Amino acid sequence: MSKPKPRHRWGRRLIYIVIILALGAYLVSLFYRLPDISARKQSYAINGGIESTLGSKFAPDLAANPGKSGVFLLPHGRDAFAARALLARMSEKSLDIQYYMYHQDMVGNLLTYEVLRAADRGVRVRMLIDDIYGHHGEDTWVALGAHPNIEVRLWNPWKRGRNRTIQSIFRALDINFRMHSKSFTVDNQATILGGRNIGNEYFDADTDVAFSDIDVLSIGPPVAEVSSQFDSYWNSDLAYPVNILVRPGSEQELGTLRDARTDFYKEQSTSTYVQALTDSGLAHGLKDGSLGFSWAQARVIHDSPLKKNAGNVDKEQSLISQLAPYLTGSKKSADIVSPYFVPGDQAADAMCKLAQNGVQVRVLTNSLASNDVSAVHAGYAKYRRKLLRCGVQLFELDESLKDHKGEAFTWLPGLKKSSLHAKTMAFDGEYLFVGSFNFDQRSLHINNEIGLIFRDPELAGATSRNFEEHVNDVAFKVEFSREGGRENMHWTGGQGGPDVDLEEEPYATTFQKLTVGILKWLPIDSQL
Q1: Does the annotation count 93 as an active-site position?
Q2: What are the structural domains of the chain?
Q3: To bridge 429 with a disulfide, which of 99, 296, 323, 461 should be the other Cys (CB 3.0-4.6 Å)?
Q4: Annotation marks residue 302 as catalytic
């Protein structure tokens, strides 16, 4: 009998390997299969909010500005918290809460207290939290889910009862896609969008760490648009009810949580945060309807919840496809503030084209020292020289701000002790964008984002002027000189004044520089 030829033996081995791998993948999928949610009930925004107290307060101004939207910027952390807490306190119909992170700290506990009070009054509460850190508050979500007026869902979750790290490896293609969107909508009459997650560091409640951030409170047409996008996410196949994903909560757990949050609120009754609910100008404005909204043509732009399945999503449903025309259509200026800035070749080329056509393009982002994600800085650094060569102006946050005492900058409050976290863009001093969108590859192609773009020459113009007047006080301007055939990087200005001229990444440690130097060589840009 003749022996099998070597080629045939390798062919069989290959078939066996494929079969084994396919079987292994199938068994892994079974091991990490998420629970069945087919019995989950769909729900939608409540439309009767116009009859609520909030609806009545806003109705006269909306009637006086037909077709326009009321916008009110929230650059200060305490005001941003007070707006959320007060709106929850004034709610009568519904609360729709959507966040990437919701910490169980002072801010999170106080807001949960207001949520529970609203639900006890009969307000329907829907909370949609991304599961990237959702497990940290799992007991809270389970207890809240026991309330008849509250439902909590976790977005694109990890399977419970399985090792999270190992699962992150085997399910990497699935769980890589995160809901980075942030919205807070009350009675379908008012909504807050922006960059803030729920946590002390986002609301100037941490004495050591703070993220300089900005939100926008809006009334009018954008509210219905935010409610519609919330519904699409809430009813998506990626939104898992906590009572199915984890377990149903009990009356005892709910009671324990209610008592704990009530006691916590009483302990904080003399804090500046609780006092802001009654004493601040914003509080009075919300209560008596005198809040000074600006009135503008506005629209909500956001990613589809199907962004994870890019092949099934119309390009026009992505946030960047809706935002790009404002950038590429700029005639005079484009001022971009983004904590994480990894534009990619296409966006970098678009910015270069603008700059070469005489448009002033300016970008403020974190420096290596102030950036909390070194890998992102490695991605950004690859584009610096290209952008500088074509005339784009780059500014990097001066890390020494956190060591300086004094009043916070009114332009970007909190920068004296923080990392940049605000996400804004001003185009031609006419249009302003505020949202959750970082100008990086994750926001562009992976994560789900949302924001408000509106035409308001006063606010947009003020934003551009503030950039012009203050950026050199809070950031280094990045430049390079050509000497001896080399392009040498320089960082000028910042807290030290215009005479400062540094030739190395300001305030960055040797370890940070070494880490970025290594990360630059790794093929990870698409994940940054």
Answers
A1: no
A2: 62-288 (3.30.870.10), 306-527 (3.30.870.10)
A3: 461
A4: no
